[in-house]
Amino acid sequence: MNEEPCLDRIPCGILKLKTDEDLTILYSNQAIKELFQTPASLKDMVCESEYPELLAEICSHLTGQTVSFELEFKAKMQKNCVWCSLQLNYIPEEEILYCAISDITCMKKFQEHLRIREEQYRLASQHSGCLVSIYDIPSRTLSPSPEFSRTFPFPYTQPLSPEFLIENGIVHRESVTDLLDFYQNMERGVPEGKCITRLKTGSGDYHWFSTHYSLVCTEDQRPLRGIISYQDITDQYEKELAYQKWMEYMREQKKDCIGYYEYNLKFDLFEEIIGEMTQTMPEYVTNSFSSIMSFIAEHHIFEEDREMFLKFFNKNQLLYHYYRGNRSLRLEHRRLRPDGSVYWGLGLVQIVSDPYTDTIKAFILIKDIDASKREALTLQELSKQDSLTGLLNRATAIHAIRNTLKNSQGHHILIMLDIDRFKQLNDNYGHQFGDKALHRAASRLKSALRRDDIFGRLGGDEFIILLKDVAYSMDLYARLENLCSLIGSALEPEAHISGSLGTAAYPEDGTVFEELYEKADIALYHAKKHGRSQYAVYEPGMSMIKS
């Protein structure tokens, strides 16, 4: 062959085979001779166990008159296992096969490595409860496992990609950035990576998944595939988030607290103490819960509240609450200052299971609430009911209205109300009948108000009402008409009484009680001036009528 010197320069093996029984070699180039030591037939080149199958495949192609085809075989080598690719071109007229042989050992090893890795992940997913998908990096497509498809049963109308998962709402919006970084790391060739993402499952709910990938690369270290596993960690992760939020809250709160304690209920051990117990404790006080709480009760708690304090801060009692789902506890109690004076304190306890261990912890915060507690007690003292009507008395009603108006963002209506010609009613029927009229009218009016509305008796036959957080669209006139009607029918059929009403609106007519009171009183005067048994809504200029 004139072309033989040229064929020796080709980096792959070249063969010319006769299509006889042994596939005799008619020509081989230098590459074949170096690799196979001048073989006489194809059988001399192929591993004995592989040859029968290879021969059968070649014959089947020749019988079918296939012109070009490609096969693989394991070469006959003493030391190394070499895989070869055999590309054949059949010339029927000459009964000759022209062949090109390439060493594909590296590719076969890579394929085997990949097969093993995929099998490992398949087995791992079966035993660990993980879901698996494979990310083909050149095509940027995902191949889901059957378990993955059952968990995320979205319609596969197009090849899966990270963008497909995002655009179809499979990925929660708060996890989009993390997920894109996760896939970009694969594409950049980072060998391993993980992230936590929220993904929508078949139930329609979003679950938290711990997502991890391992990268498979080509021989020249180009990223080829990412084997991705997904483990549902919803319960654990939500516990961790709750724990972290609670820890952040406690870090803020303990800046201005009297005392802060982290207590391990399982091991009966204080892990942190801040505040009142940082001074040196006597030798007899151990680090146990009962010992320290007993010391606090004796030296820091008002005598009358000590028993209650110790019953509340009892290890078994805290566990009792925890196992019954009562994880947030509070105790108001009186405490002693260093000078012996008494003040009010609040004990806040949050009992949580540490998500990283199996321990149960109690976080205890002691705060000074003396100012707010004394204000609440003062309000409680003021809130004695009016003895005749059962309504709030004057001081309590005004105090409650002021508190509502303070920094309010709502819309409220203040109503001033009194019984028409009440003195005349007392003179004609007696004071006992007048008391009955007041009681009956108050009862009927109260039945028409909401639980949150404020209703009080200012004294005599005068009443005050605050309709809280009413809509601007409310038919105020119909509401006032109804109140007038309720007063008119309070004593029927024994007698007919009537009442007059005047109103002012917050914040249009004023933002403090005194402004609203004055304008509602002006409107009430206006109603009485025009015949009684009616109502009037304050309007600018009404003050001139009163003058």
Automatic annotation (TrEMBL):
<dbReference type="InterPro" id="IPR035965">
    <property type="entry name" value="PAS-like_dom_sf"/>
</dbReference>
<protein>
    <submittedName>
        <fullName>Diguanylate cyclase</fullName>
    </submittedName>
</protein>
<dbReference type="InterPro" id="IPR001610">
    <property type="entry name" value="PAC"/>
</dbReference>
<dbReference type="InterPro" id="IPR000160">
    <property type="entry name" value="GGDEF_dom"/>
</dbReference>
<feature type="domain" description="GGDEF">
    <location>
        <begin position="410"/>
        <end position="540"/>
    </location>
</feature>
<dbReference type="InterPro" id="IPR029787">
    <property type="entry name" value="Nucleotide_cyclase"/>
</dbReference>
<dbReference type="InterPro" id="IPR052163">
    <property type="entry name" value="DGC-Regulatory_Protein"/>
</dbReference>
<dbReference type="Pfam" id="PF00990">
    <property type="entry name" value="GGDEF"/>
</dbReference>
<dbReference type="InterPro" id="IPR043128">
    <property type="entry name" value="Rev_trsase/Diguanyl_cyclase"/>
</dbReference>
